[in-house]
Design a protein that fits this description.
alpha/beta; eleven-stranded parallel beta sheet; disordered N terminus; disordered C terminus
Amino acid sequence: MMSKLLLICFLFFLSSSHLLSSSFSFSNSTKLCSHGQTLTLLQLKNSFSIMHYSLFGYCINSYPKTKHWKEGSDCCSWDGVSCDLVTGHVIELDLSCSWLSGTIHSNSTLFRFPHLQRLNLAFNDFFGSSVSAGFGRFSSLTHLNLSDSLFSGLISPEISHLSNLVSLDLSQNYQVAGIALHGFDSLVQNLTKLQKLHLSGISISSVFPNSLLNRSSLISLDLSWCGLHGRFPENDIHLPKLELLDLWGNSNLGGNFPRFSENNSLIDLALLSTNFSGELPASMGNLKSLQTLDLSNCQFSGSIPASLENLTQITSLNLNANHFSGKIPPSIRNLTNLHVLDFYDNQLEGPIPSSVYGFSSLSFVLLGYNLFNGTIPSWLYTLPSLVQLDLSHNKFTGHIGEFQFDSLEKIDLSMNELHGSIPTSIFELVNLSSLYLFSNNLSGVLETSKFEKLINLINLDLSNNMLSLTMSVHSNSNIQNLDLSHNNISGIFSWNVGKDTLFYMNLSYNSISGFEMLPWSRMHTLDLHSNLLQGPLPTPPNSTFFFSVSHNKLSGEISPLICKVRSMGILDLSHNNFGGMLPHCLGNFSKDLFDLNLRRNQFHGIIPQTFLKGNSFRSLDFNGNQLEGLVPRSLIICRELEVLDLGNNKINDTFPHWLGALPKLQVLVLRSNHFHGHIGFSKIKSPFMSLRIIDLSQNDFEGHLPEMYLRSLKATMNIDEGNVTRRYIGDTYYEDSTMVTIKGLEMEFVKILNTFTTIDLSNNKFQGEIPKCIGNLNSLRGLNLSHNYLTRHIPLSFKNMKMLESLDLSSNKLSGKIPQELTSLTFLEVLNLSQNHLTGFIPQGSQFQTFRNDSYYGNPGLCGFPLSKRCTTEEVLEPSQEIEAEFESRFDWKITLMGYGCGLVSGFSLGCLIFLIGKPEWLVWIIDKNIHKMIVRNKMSTHRRGTRRS
């Protein structure tokens, strides 16, 4: 019986298997996708090309999904295509990250799928495509994602017709100009089912719509970088499902911190780079689900509220670049899930809270640029996940502690008041890539061999401390940027740090006497200035762009090997003892060389006469050598030249008027040479238009002052300093310097401000009167015409130079009075009119009350304060010669004759009247009365003068 039962079961199994097999065979032979949909999808595929790469790096799984779309197979089984299991209609297209490139036109086959419910085209290249009206035809669409696909133009208002949309993401299409015809308002009003609205980067240029805060269905709202403006609504926010609110980058959107009800689900709140302001309310403690809070680069102020302790789920707390003050609340210790703590760039003060435990995930502690003081708390050295620690630009004191874990990648403790030695644990941080300890009071001997373990170290800055080195020659480090300037390093520098990687090295302001070699093959910037280097010039690596050995004791001639460094951009050999003749190649070995500084050496011979056409020279400084000959005429091709300093040499030439054609020349120094002759005129229409520092002093120039050139100095006229961005001549690292005589002193300007202006023509043989056009230079700071043979009066036009701080006209042959109008020069600090032939009363008032006797000595005709010689009444009242001359030149004899004629007629008529009727009593009374007044005045005036003289 049992065997029969088993046989029946076996036969039933065979029968069922056959039926199932037949069923599956039938199913596989029947295609769910219609032939029409297949052709339409293939047409869509052929309208695009494959880029062979993913356009963006955000795609986790990126590949060309349409590559295997082929006729003959069921389109419902194709990558990115989903169909309704009953009708076979295509209801979903997910072609995100598919490497597609092309334009979606308004008649694209994409719009022939009326049953589409989900469409995702994100992360492709549809450059030139717009979000056209075709997208509004998908009446069943619930999810639309066109993000990061290079759409442009205006978004069609038909997009707001998709009333079934639950999710709309058009973000990161930065070429999209906005939504047409008030489309944003329509979109917000019509799409009432939205749970996700992401429009990041779409130019909306609207106020924040209040109605969005009434959508209880909203889960995710991203309106970052949308050009929102006005004030964010002040009313309470009742969006119980909202998890993301991102308003980042709407710089004109202001308001107070949003008020959320206790019933909220907010996880991510980003208000960074907006204009939100005010204090953080205690109600922010209601955000108990919050994981990310980013308020950086806003205008928030006040203290950090203690209610912060309620945010126990928070992992990233970013308040940097605001105006928060006060102390960090001790309740910070409750935020044990923190991964990022960023209070950088505020005004927080006091010590950092101690007794903090449990921050096992804290990776980034960024507290730099505040006013914190005290010692660094011990818990910061014991964080097991710490990757970056930034406490820079504070007032921390004490020693640096020992780090307990090696997870750190960046340490920045710079600009504090830390002292002691560098802890040994730092040299065990094998993951460390950047170490910044500059500008502290660290001391001790640092063994370079300790850096051997730090194979990931790229940036090392220990400058402005009191460290010395014990050096080992060999080094396995990969350091790229090294700054040890302003320390106590001495002797021969033998540390071959980063031999194949070092890019930037600054060893300036030490006592280094030499190098065993300069082995660095990738060196770009090598700054060795202000040391004790001796011997010949070390030749820098061929890759060097910046090379400075200024302020050392180097000697000998410059080897022509320097000209093999064809990448050189800045070469500073100033303030050494170099001698010999300059290599002829110096002017033409590098098209990239723009700063050449040979100041204060002992070079002789001539300046190199050849400069490359198309060169980049911006500054040439040969000051303080023994160079002779002529100024090289090839300088005319240095079209970028801003600074030319040939002062204090033995150059024998006439004035190089052809330099006036250089459009950017701002500083010209020819002082203390053997220049001679008349400066004369220029054939150039407007020479030296950018020039603002001119020093031709201590030469043998003669003739009249160069009026034509003085009229052309536009850079010293009408400078509106309120609208000028102040900067120094040079780049961010290297800036030009020059020596000028101003305010009676020879001073070195280690930086040249772009608004500083001065003219020094002193100690020459100029003669004649001072041109009145000098008064047009109303932005001039200093003017020195002393020690010449100038004559006649001080021009009244000097009153126009309102910015003048120093005026030296001493040792000339000037005559006449000092114009009273000079008292209007309220910035004038130094005045020297000594050794002239000036006469009369010294003007009083304003800055003239501060000048001493030495401003006027050698002018025996002057009187009044501060001189002991008092003035007579005639000297006080006598007008200046220039005013008299001006009156005489303007006196019009036509007007005089007209007055004479009128007086003659009136007198003749009056005489006839008297002759006919006799002496009128009223006329006699008027004449007698006026004669009596004149007699009384004359007697009183004579009496006063007699009293003063006695």
